[in-house]
Amino acid sequence: MSVTNRFVDDLMLRYLLPENVTELLLPADDPGRKRARALLTSVYEPKLLDVRSVESVKIIHKEFQTPVPEWTSVHASWDKTVPATEQARVTVRVPATPPFQWIDMSLETLVAAKAADTGRVLASVEAGQWEAAGGHGAEGDQFDRDYSLRYAEPPLFDPSAPPRGFPLRVSVLFFGGLDLADALRRLNRARQAVNAASPRPEAYDGGSILASSAWLAVFPAVTADQDTSSTTEQLVGDLLAPQGFVAAFEMPP
Prior knowledge:
By secondary structure, the chain is α/β, with parallel strands linked by helices.
């Protein structure tokens, strides 16, 4: 068995235990719960919502090696000119080759988080004076009216308010080494397949939905020396973050 396959198998056995999955999402050495917040904001676009804290993550469903079909579109056309002109165009979706992307661990979770609304809300609409279109006031003319929209500042964040529940799918891929080019290609292909197979809602009450799933890439922890390992792990996280992926590092058994 290769080192890569052994690492993947070890992680599947490790994450059979619910407490180990919770530790992956809410590491003990991450008191600010930055990992969970990054996963949440990679799906829930925070334009109108500022996540202040993550209180808990509940694992609702878990499965390993989930197949996600990849599809491609085949375009065809048919023309006929005799005895009458006819034309038809057809698009057929067929499985691509290979037919699946594999998600090493798929999680359905409910994230309890406290968040502040940051967008202004519409407070009132005030109507101005009527004006005749074209500058004339004759009877029967079309009239326009100006409206003034007044917005109120969002309410102040109340830290004592109960947390809100955010459903969050987390797709986890395991990587047996730091082949970052291959990891990014696999992450992007898998995300594209999941987005196509599970279209995301257009919006939620705090902004836009960015993706059908949050994505967590798990690599073997770097063990050469403490300074080098922490620097490498930070750089890997910095590389993945702008593309919407979150990195984690686990010690091999």
